Structure formats: C-alpha cells, structure tokens
C-alpha cells in the first residue's frame, strides 16, 4: 500500500516542481488561490475555514502568498478590524497554471477512473488527510 502511495505521489512531483519554479508556491498554495478566486475577497478566517486550516495556519498561508505577490490584503469597509484577502493580478496569472495541472499525467490518470472510483478515492484521501486530535490543522 505504501509503495502504491509513493508511486502515485511521484506522478505529482514534476508538476509540483514546475509550479514552484514558475510561481514560488506549492500546489496546496495554488489550491488556496483557486478557493479565493471562487470566494472573492474574504476574511483570512473564512479562507482558513474553507481550507480546513487553523487560524494561525491560514495566516501563515496568506503571509506566504502575500510575500510571493499572489494575494492582496485590504481592510473591510464594513468592519475595519477585519482583513480581507483576494488574489492579486499576479495571483490570477498563477491561476492560469491550472491548465498545466489539468493537463498533467496525474490528472489524466485520475480522470481515467470512473465516477464511482473517483468518489471513493476522494473520500479515502479526505479521510487520511483530515486533522486528528494528535495533529490539528
């Protein structure tokens, strides 16, 4: 089982390296940008909740994305205590690399599974990646 996991992970490595080389972020960071693209400007806490991250992890994520120039922060007009985050123009450019993700060998293999297999795999991956009491998000 572990060998199969490592073989699957090795399919993602070239894609991860290319995204990191182009944008200086991970695939997980790119996923967070995609969530922001869908949600629009949201409080950092909302982004964290959508991604299943603790507040400090969400803040660290946004800090990293901001350092990379991929998100912009602003103060909410409704509540000046709230900081909103949204993709920057460079962030939207980085999101264009989702085409690269969709065209990857890994995506091609995932899409070759039928819908029931995809659902089962997604459920299993969610279960093993969910935070536990010993390792909170």
What's the short story on this structure?
With 137 residues, this protein is mainly alpha-helical.
From the structure above, extract its key features.
137 residues, 3-stranded antiparallel β-sheet, 8 helices, globular
Unreliable residue runs: none
Order of helices and strands: HHEHHEEHHHH
Outline: globular
Averaged pLDDT: 88
Strand content: 5-15%
Secondary structure: helix percent:
55-70%
Largest sheet: 3 strands, antiparallel
Give a count of the beta strands, DSSP E runs of length 2 or more: 3
Rg (CA only): 16 Å
Placed side by side, the strands forming the largest sheet appear as 1-3-2
Structural class: mainly alpha
Count of helix runs: 8
N-to-C terminal Cα separation, in Å? Answer: 25 Å
Report on the architecture of this protein.
The protein has 137 residues and is mostly helical. 66% of the residues lie in helices and 9% in strands. The chain is built from 8 helices and 3 strands; from the N terminus they run H-H-E-H-H-E-E-H-H-H-H. It has helices spanning 2-23, 27-39, 44-51, 55-67, 89-95, 98-102, 105-111, 115-129; strands at residues 42-43, 71-75, 83-87. Strands 1-3-2 form a 3-stranded antiparallel beta sheet. Strand 2 (71-75) and strand 3 (83-87) form a beta hairpin. Helix 2 crosses helix 5 (89-95). The two termini are 25 Å apart.
What's the SSE blueprint?
Elements: H1 2-23, H2 27-39, E1 42-43, H3 44-51, H4 55-67, E2 71-75, E3 83-87, H5 89-95, H6 98-102, H7 105-111, H8 115-129
Antiparallel strand pairs: 1-3, 2-3
Helix pairs in contact: 2-5, 3-4
């Amino acid at each position: 089982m572990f060998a199969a996991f490592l073989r699957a992970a090795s399919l993602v490595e070239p894609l991860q390296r290319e995204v990191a080389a182009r944008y200086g972020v991970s695939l997980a960071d790119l996923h967070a940008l995609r969530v922001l693209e869908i949600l629009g400007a949201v409080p950092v806490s909302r982004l964290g909740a959508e991604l299943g991250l603790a507040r400090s992890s969400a803040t660290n994520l946004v800090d990293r994305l901001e350092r990379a120039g991929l998100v912009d922060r602003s103060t909410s007009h409704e509540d000046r205590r709230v900081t909103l985050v949204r993709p920057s123009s460079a962030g939207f450019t980085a999101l264009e690399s989702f085409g690269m993700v969709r065209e990857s060998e890994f995506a091609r293999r995932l899409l070759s599974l039928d819908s029931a297999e995809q659902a089962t795999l997604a459920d299993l991956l969610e279960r093993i990646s969910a935070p536990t009491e010993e390792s909170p998000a």
